[in-house]
Structure formats: structure tokens, C-alpha cells
Amino acid sequence: MKNHRYIFLYILLITALISSGCSEDHGHNSDPIDANNNGFESRAVAEVFVTNCALSGCHAGASPQGGISFETYDKMIAGSQGRDTTSGGGHGHGKRLGIYQGEGVYGGEAVVPFSPEESLVYRLITGNVADSTRHMPYNKNPLSETQIQTVRNWILNGARNHHREVPFSNPSVRAYICSQGSNQIYVIDGDKKMISRVVELGSGTQIAPHNVKVFGDYYYVTQIRAGKLVKYRIADNSVAAELTGLDVPGMVELSSDGSKAFVSKSSTASGSYNSIYVINTATMQLVNELAIPVSGIPHGIALNSDATKLYVANMTKDRITVLNTATGDPVIDDIVMSSGTATVHEPMHIYVSPDDKYLYVSCRKSDKLLVYDAGTGSLLKDIQFNSHPMQISIMPNGSRLYVNLMHSAQIAVINFSGTDWSVSQYITYPNFSMLYGSALSADGKYLFVTSCNEMNAYKPRYAVKGRNQPSNLGIIETATNEVVRVLDLGSYATGIAAR
Question: Does the pTM exceed 0.70?
Fold first, then answer.
């Protein structure tokens, strides 16, 4: 009798547990999508992600795979917060590599509004990743064509939320990046530290966007192979105007009032040149060409704070010319950087200190940063590196310089005490590969650097099929000099501007 009672109690317990479990399932899982579509624009979009991806052990819960959750729109738009940097199979279901400065450094957005082909989630569900084991949904049947088209249309329409708002639309900080190898401009939301837009310039090799500068409601991009300076509207990234017929345009600098653009030659130019273009930015017409006394490749250019002087680094002649921007006349004799006919330094980039007192010159051949008195042209400091310095960013108060060292994948931090310049530290990160462009936010809080990955050493976790020289963006917090975000970009990222 006692045994029968135990059996009866056991059955009651099992029944209670089953009932309890069903009750919980009913309350939580009968319809995982709420009346607001979990924040997504439509129920159809929500169903694709919530029912196929936001599953236990996948992209849901406290520790979602790949650091990204698809449970709600807000969680999805937040992107990944510690992307796996291993090279093993699986779309995120592998061990993580230790991160230099904590979680959330290598990651990024799941979707780029208006750009399905540049949106990671769309590439994963369509199989546009170099590693086929990372196809989504992971270890499940592929999505139907209808589901894929639903996602594509949603992204093309701006990846909007339930209130029809487009994400990453009004950041306080934006950065613009030229992906020279894939003919794209990447727009970065500096607040969210995500790619907010990708501007497609066209296919083929005859464009090559190289350098970019921002002023007012526009940004200006040089296109080496297209021979153009193009003016884009910040509001919608559309072309406002362009100037064609330029010969291998390279760097661009804008006057302090934004009325003029000065355009140099590309460092890849063949032949010999002796002038800098001057362009009226309102009309986008060529108004002058400033001549330098010795022909070569005038690539690096810089303006003083009131744009009355233009400093030109003649890369193949080891000379710096200082020109009056109004008259075109030399202000001082050329700064001759080396004696003899052989090029010793190859000055590639040049910068003026915020107080207009000093010139900072990056030298490709000698691996040096040379500091000159901007008024007299006398050499003040010679800093030797083990790799050639590329682009430089200078803190607004002039107290610190960040120098990209291309081949060593390091950023040299140089402190200026008022009487001397000294290297205080080097910033590096595993994803860095041939550092190229450099720009500071207007307040100096964040440094943005591009890796062009010329030698293809960097292998992104979710590489695009067939994309050569996949590059990335590093974001550094200048208060700590720590890397706080790394984002994958297009091919061969070069020039960058921030505001």
C-alpha cells in the first residue's frame, strides 16, 4: 500500500512539473513577438530573426553567440560586443581570443541601413562570406527566398524600427573613410561606433577614392583614377557637384572658411608635376594652379590656420615649398631636406601645428618624422622609427601627436612639452595591418585610424567572398590611448576625416 502511495505521489509530482513547464512555455514562447514586433518595422521582419536566430544557445540570452542578440530590434542594432577573432569554423560558435582592452573591441553593426550587401546579417543568410561554415541560420535549414527578400527589402528601406526611424542617423560625431580598393565611402557613427552608411561609387577600377575632407554641409573626396574632386551632401550622401579633368588628384585640404579646396597629386603618380589645384568649392570650378619651383610629385599638403600659406611636400625631390595662397609666390626659400641628387627622405605627408609654429613631415624612405620651424624652415627634431610614418593627427592644443607607422602596425604617441618632442608609447592591436589614414574627432576625444591591409595579412572573421585587401577602422580613446573599437571596412581603406 505504501508503495502505491509513493507511486501516486511520484505521478503527481511529474504531472505538476510538466504542467508548470507548459505553463511557462505558453506564457513565454507561444508568441515570442509582441504587439510592437519586438521593435522591428514589421512582424514579417521580426519573425525571420526572432524565430530563426533568437534561440537558446544561439543569438539570445545573457551571452549570445558572436556577442549579438536578435531577440529585439534594439539588441540587434546594438551590434556585436566582442566578435570572435578566431579563424575556426562556425559563424560564432567557437572560442574567443583574449582581447587586449576587454570585451567589445572587435565587432560592429549587424546591418548597414540602405546597404544589404554590406550588412553582415544579410551576407550571412545569403552565404556571402569566405568561410561557408558561417552561413546563417547556424546548423539549420537556410532561409526561404521569401524570408531573404523580406530582410533585403527591410535593409534597402533603411532597416527601420517600429516607429519607422532609421538607425545611426544623427550622431554628434561622424567619420568618413575612403575605401580605395572597393570604390566606397564608409560613414561612421562616432557615438555608436558603428558603420552608419556605405556610399557606393561604382564598379571597376577607374575611380579610386583616396582622400576626404569635411566642411559645413558637405564632404569632398578626391578620386585618383576618375580624375575628380567630388562634393557630397552630408544629409543624404548624394553628389552635389564635381570637378572632372584633374590629373591624378591625391590629397585635399580646405581653407578655414571652406571656400577653397587645394588638391595635390597622388603618391602613385608617374611622371613629374609642379602644381597644386585651387578649386572654388561653391562653384566647383578650377580657379588657379599654384606652381612649385622644382617638378616632382607634390603629394603632402597642409594649410596654416587662416589658409594664407600652403605647405607642399615634394616627395621625389626632398623639398618643402611654402606658398602664399593669394599670390602663389614663395613665402620663404624651399626647405631642402637633403643634399645631392638622390632622394633620402621622400616626404609623403606634412602637417602644421595648431599654433602655426611647427611643421611635421612623415618621410617614407628614411622612416623619420622631421619637425621644422614653420617660419624659418630650420630643422628642430629628427625622430627615427623602424617603419615609415604615414598620416598624423595632432591634438587640438598641439600637446600630442599620433603617428601611424605603416609597416609595424603601431601608432606612435609623441608628446610635445613646449621645448621638445618625445615618443611616450606605442598603440597596437592584433587587427591592425598597414596603418594608413588618421583623424581626430573635433573635440579630440577619439582617434580614428585606417588599416589598408595592402599585403592581405589581416583576415576578417566574416570576410566578404572575393574581397581583396579587406581593411578595418580602429577607434582609440585619447584619454586612455586604448583601442575601444575595431570595425571591418571595404578594400584598401586610405584617407579619413572626422567632425
Answer: yes
